[in-house]
Design brief:
Length: about 210
């Protein structure tokens, strides 16, 4: 799977545009980030983790190759401003479309499309550009905390329903924190302390 709800991974190689850079998966899963998994198990599961956590960073490479992200077309062009509602955790959300399907269940393998931006509007990843949604298990730490909470719901946040589209504003504590992501030689794709903005479309069970 090659999508990006992030953990940071292999560096971008200009000779191979398919090399994943960021992953939207939990940055703590990769040793170079704030690793959550037991490091003694890391080497034994490295291949599996990398293949599953390429969700949100691989697309970053393609964002440079395609200066006009195709998610704009997928969303039908410009849309009215979205008014965010803040939750106690610091996560903010705004529902653009309320789905009519079932809500995701913790531990379930689901699929979602997304566009990730920094506060300045710079797109760092888009599954729409790759033409393939991200598949991951929700609520078990495979993606950043802001995604788990933003999709499953929590205090002050209703769960997303399949078919729904939601904007998320994720504070650093629920994203990549003080480490940032995709850092190489002092430069980071996602700088330390970044607030992340995501457009998430929950497709449903994978």
């Amino acid at each position: 799977m090659t999508s990006l709800p992030f953990s940071i991974g292999t560096s971008y190689n200009p000779t191979n545009h398919l090399t994943p850079t960021l992953r939207l998966f939990n940055p703590r899963i990769i040793k170079s980030s704030a690793v959550k998994l037991d490091e003694t198990k890391y080497s034994a599961t490295k291949s599996a983790l990398l293949s599953r956590r390429e969700a949100i960073g691989v697309g970053f490479c393609f964002s440079f190759l395609d200066p006009k992200p195709q998610f704009a077309a997928a969303e039908g062009g410009a849309s009215p401003p979205c008014e965010f509602t803040a939750a106690p955790s610091g996560l903010s959300y705004c529902d653009k479309v309320i789905g009519n399907g079932p809500e995701a269940v913790k531990g379930q393998l689901i699929k979602a499309h997304y566009v990730g931006k920094l506060e300045d509007g710079k797109v760092f990843d888009s599954s729409y550009n790759r033409g393939k949604p991200l598949a991951f298990r929700i609520g078990v730490g495979e993606v950043i905390k802001g995604w788990d909470e933003g999709i499953l719901g929590g205090e002050g946040i209703p769960p997303m329903l399949a078919g729904g589209k939601r904007k998320l504003r994720i504070p650093p504590a629920l994203g990549y924190g003080s480490r940032g992501a995709g850092c190489n030689g002092g430069s980071c794709i996602i700088p330390p302390g970044s607030v992340l903005l995501f457009d998430v479309e929950l497709i449903g069970k994978a």
